[in-house]
Specification:
CATH topology: 2,3-Dihydroxybiphenyl 1,2-Dioxygenase, domain 1
Largest sheet: 5 strands, mixed
Number of domains: 1
Radius of gyration: 16 Å
Number of strands: 9
Distance between the termini: 21 Å
CATH superfamily: 2,3-Dihydroxybiphenyl 1,2-Dioxygenase, domain 1
CATH architecture: Roll
Structural class: alpha/beta
Shape: globular
Length: 154
C-alpha cells in the first residue's frame, strides 16, 4: 500500500508561546484542538498539514529539518531577518537559489529546530533578498541530473 501524503511533523518547543508565535508570524500557522498527552503539546495547522509542538527535554538536531512551502518568500525573509532567525551555519549560507527555479531559506525556530522555507520563482525575490541569495550551483557543481531536481512535485 502506498502512502497518501505526509500528515504532520513534530518538533520540540521549550517555550511553547514563543514557538507558536514564530510559526504564526512567519507562516500563518493556526493553533488547533489538541489532545491532552499529559505534558504541553500544541498542534498547528499549516495549510492542509499539521505541525505538532511538544514541550519535551530534547535538544534540537543540527541537520534534521522540515520544509514549509510558502507562496511568497519575501515576507518570511523579512520577518525572519527581524527575528534574527537565519541559520547561517548549517548549509553554509541561509538563502539559496536551487535548480528548478526554487528558493530555499534556512531558519532556526525559538527552540533551535532547523526549518526550511521553500518557494518557487527566483524572479519574485525582493532586491534585498536577491542580493543576499547565493546560487547552489556556484557553491557546488551541478550535473545534468542535479539540474533536473525540484522541491515541487506536480
Amino acid at each position: 500500500m502506498a502512502a497518501l501524503s505526509l500528515n504532520h511533523v513534530s518538533v520540540c518547543a521549550d517555550d511553547m508561546a514563543a514557538s507558536i508565535d514564530f510559526y504564526a508570524d512567519l507562516f500563518g500557522a493556526e493553533p488547533i484542538a489538541t489532545p491532552n498527552f499529559g505534558y504541553p503539546v500544541q498542534w498547528l495547522r499549516l495549510g492542509d498539514r499539521q505541525l505538532h509542538l511538544f514541550d519535551r527535554p530534547e535538544a534540537p538536531r543540527k541537520y534534521s529539518h522540515f520544509g514549509i512551502t510558502v507562496e511568497d518568500i519575501n515576507p518570511v525573509y523579512e520577518k525572519a531577518k527581524a527575528r534574527d532567525a537565519f541559520d547561517h551555519e548549517t548549509g553554509g549560507h541561509h538563502l539559496y537559489e536551487l535548480p528548478g527555479d526554487c528558493v530555499q531559506l534556512y531558519l532556526r525556530d525559538p527552540h533551535g529546530n532547523f526549518v526550511e522555507a521553500d518557494a518557487q520563482g527566483v524572479d519574485r525575490l525582493s532586491p534585498e533578498a536577491r542580493a543576499d541569495m547565493q546560487r547552489l550551483g556556484d557553491r557546488c557543481p551541478q550535473s545534468a541530473e542535479n539540474l533536473r531536481a525540484t522541491l515541487f512535485l506536480h
